[in-house]
Write a structure and sequence with these properties.
heterodimer; A: mainly beta; four-stranded antiparallel sheet; B: 112 residues; six-stranded mixed sheet; 10 strands; 0% helix
């Protein structure tokens, strides 16, 4: 199975900060990587698909990038509504695997 | 697009439960569908997938115990949960093929 190692697990940040969350894939997954945002009591929301593409309705301060087997989600100019847990998902092969999550919280 | 799960509840270990996901707002028969679960306070865990042609794939943790199926005439996705264990306690979400749409989830609690 492909392991997705996500870091950090917790990320205290201030409003207006630029933050980056990373997932490292244990095997090649190409660009079959998605990022989700989940707020308490809510279903996950797709933020990024194909590693770098912004999903519909997602603010442009969110972006995704790839460097080899490392995939990153960056949020520029953090806003209060961005406080949530973020997960990556590889869908290159079954079983699909999620990262363990990063809780973004106000410092 | 709307996905609405139902069928969750409290069930004893070793018993069975059948979850449903009612779909609307799109051509259900044209899309593969997933079940994903989330244990209380934990992360997301992919469970199973069914293609538009009803091919299926399962996570190892549920293989042989859970069965994913679909009824295109009823626009409904199902997950049959058998031989339930305490570690199956979770919110179960259905999601459309590429995860752009998710239901609100249904809670399954396995406890004696």
């Amino acid at each position: 199975d492909i392991q997705m190692t996500q870091s950090p697990s917790s990320l205290p940040a201030s409003l207006g900060d630029r933050v980056t969350i990373t997932c490292r894939a244990s095997q090649d997954i190409g660009n079959y990587l998605r990022w989700f945002q989940q707020k308490p009591g809510k279903s996950p929301r797709l933020m990024i698909y194909g590693a770098t593409n912004l999903a519909a309705g997602v603010p442009s301060r969110f972006s995704g990038s790839r460097s080899g087997s490392d995939y990153s989600l960056t949020i520029n100019s953090l806003e209060s509504e961005d406080m949530a847990i973020y997960y990556c998902l590889q869908h290159n092969e079954y079983p699909l695997t999620f990262g363990s999550g990063t809780k973004l919280e106000i410092k | 697009v709307q996905l609405v799960e139902s069928g969750g509840g409290l069930v004893q270990p070793g018993k069975s439960l059948k979850l449903s996901c009612s779909a609307s707002g799109f051509t259900f028969s044209s899309y593969g569908m997933h079940w994903i679960r989330q244990a209380p306070g934990k992360g997301l865990d992919w469970v199973a997938y069914i293609s538009s042609s009803s091919g299926t794939v399962y996570a190892d943790a549920v293989k042989g115990r859970f069965t994913i199926s679909r009824d295109n005439a009823k626009n409904t996705l199902y997950l049959q949960l058998n031989s339930l264990k305490s570690e199956d306690t979770a919110i179960y979400y259905c999601a459309r093929g590429w995860f752009a749409y998710w239901g609100q989830g249904t809670l399954v609690t396995v406890s004696s």
